[in-house]
Specification:
Blueprint (H helix, E strand, L loop, with lengths): L2 H8 L5 H4 L1 E9 L5 E7 L6 H14 L8 E5 L11 H10 L5 H14 L5 E12 L2 E2 L5 E2 L6 E14 L4 E4 L4 E4 L4 E3 L4 E5 L1 E3 L2 E3 L2 E6 L7 H8 L7 H16 L5 H21 L6 E3 H10 L4 H4 L2 H8 L2 H9 L9 H4 L18 E3 H4 L4 E6 L2 E6 L6 E6 L2 E6 L6 E2 L2 E2 L3
Antiparallel strand pairs: 1-2, 1-4, 3-14, 4-7, 5-6, 7-10, 7-11, 8-9, 11-14, 12-13, 15-16, 17-18, 19-20, 21-22
Length: 414
Amino acid sequence: MTKKEINEIKSLFDTVQDCGITKLAGCYVNGDKSKVKTFSESFYNLPEEEMYKYLEIFRKTLSGTPGKNLQDMSFVNPESDSTASGKELLQKLRRTELKDDATLEDFYDKVISSYDYVGNYLILLIHQSYDIPGMTTDGIEMDDASDEVYSYVLCSICPMKLTKPGLGFDDDLGEIHTLRQIFAVELPDNGFLFPAFNDRSTDENAILYSSRKTDSLQSAFLENVLDVSATLPAKQQKEGFNEFVSEVLGEESSFETVLSIQENLKETVNNKKSELAGETVFLDKNAMRDVFEKSGVSGEKLQVFDKKFDEQFDMQKIRKKQIGEDDGDYSNDSAASGDTMGRSSYVPNIKVEEKLFADNVAPVRNIEVRNKNMVLRVSSKHTDIIDTRVIDGKKCLVIELTEDLTVNGIPVEG
């Protein structure tokens, strides 16, 4: 989904009058992974103040950076009509508009068995039907030109945290007393939108996955509940890319070559962003190979590019690194039994899309040069101020001194 499409759905939660939510359902789960309370009710039967609190949660579920916090994911078996498939379960939730208790219980059970969280949390589900307004060629909505109703389910999974202990004023007694601690609902850690709203239309073969943390995935949840393929988390993309560049270049990993790759990478991303009018940019294997060629990487190194790319972003390899093992059985027995609590290193045997979110690997603002004694950050727009030279037999990093030079904020003469 593009940023505009995400914002279009997100804007439905700006006001109570326009949200159009037909049903709200939820399940409160305690630290023992037991259901404390389930509920299902008409959203408009809630007090208005509560409705706005819920809308804040739903807006937050669709907030973040596409490609980082918000990821498009496709079903592994989109054509499967098995009742055990993730797609079929989500379809049933949508078809029944969250009114079938048995389907809701099935969904809650699957989430509880796979969701990796230590503590209490709340599973929230809403259903809404959105009458998609038509759009003119210059981007103006036409309210009377709708030709599709987008029926969707939004899920938000929110941690529940104890309020802080302390003293407070009791209005009824007119006295200061110790405040009673309760479990309060916090903003969501994870969630998803099904079906995806691609090209401003229903896409039943995909979801939009939301994650507050960008350095890890709820892997067992994605595999066992949603049954989707995924891109690597942002942190793994960045670390994996750095390792990949180092392995491909080998002895050719000079300052000049690495800097050239960074500059060409940024240029490629900027060009793609211009073509896509600022929308999310991904880089696949071919785009990355073009950057390496343009940066003067030798033909010998380019011959190993494809193999290294596939190896670097292979889930089994990443899995071994995270668990810290080189051998062993990597079956999903522990995930199937729900034994994933505290195992943030768990990585599933699911398909991973071989593409990288551009902002995870390309220098956005600065290029950083570092060793154990210093850190130098240079604007990615002005890398021409640094150079390498051999001085007194030593290879040195040379920086052009300008009139606006300061040391700890103190102006100095060049």
